[in-house]
Amino acid sequence: MAKKVFIVSSTPRERGNSDILAEEFARGARDAGHEVCKVNIREMQLQFCIGCLYCQNHEGCVLQDGMNALYESVQNADVLVFATPVYYYGMSGQLKTFLDRLNPLFPRNNKFREVYLLASAAEDDGSAMDGAVSGVQGWIDCFAGVRLAGVVRATGVTGIGQAKGSAASVQAYETGKALR
Question: Which residue ranges does the record assign to the NADPH-dependent FMN reductase-like domain (predicted)?
């Protein structure tokens, strides 16, 4: 059965390494017959959450920056995929801001149950991504029945596009293709 897959790429660099992982995951998921929607945060005018909690009693967010158009797609996705470069051993600020802005989903009946993290880092040691994993896990923990289904770690990549053809990009493709 085809799944709806929602992918968020948070790199500010076009053709960045984490975006390559996102594209490969998307390609694998499409090859497996799934429906894929991918957004690039760098193309949005994403604003910071202001903590007003308007979203807890209304449909959507009080801020008008394009997020309101995404909530239904995220809510109705079967699988969420977050792709991020790792900066200072944590997820990008862009991804953290995006996750904060998903606060309107908290009181909703969401369909997603699986979350994947695709991360790239200049550091050669995969443990450099543990902070990003922990941050995404913290977001996941706010939603009952949702689990971190997998993490792809592209290590030792600094130059734009360096992840292309890497073992991590192959793993991202295979992970997307293996969705059931």
Answer: 4-121
How many beta carbons lie within 10 A of that of residue 44, not counting itself? 17
pLDDT at 59 over 90: no
Q: What is the pTM of this model?
A: 0.97
Looking at domain 4-177, its CATH architecture is 3-Layer(aba) Sandwich (3.40)
DSSP structure class, residue 121: -
* Mean pLDDT within 2-29: 97
The owner of tokens 């493709």 is 173
The residues with which 91 forms a beta bridge, in sequence order, are: 86
Distance CA 127, CA 100 (A): 24
Q: Angle at CA 50, nearest 5°, toward 130 and 13? A: 50
Radius of gyration of the chain (CA): 15
Element (H, E) at 40: strand 35-40
Could you give the 3-state DSSP secondary structure of residue 117?
A: strand
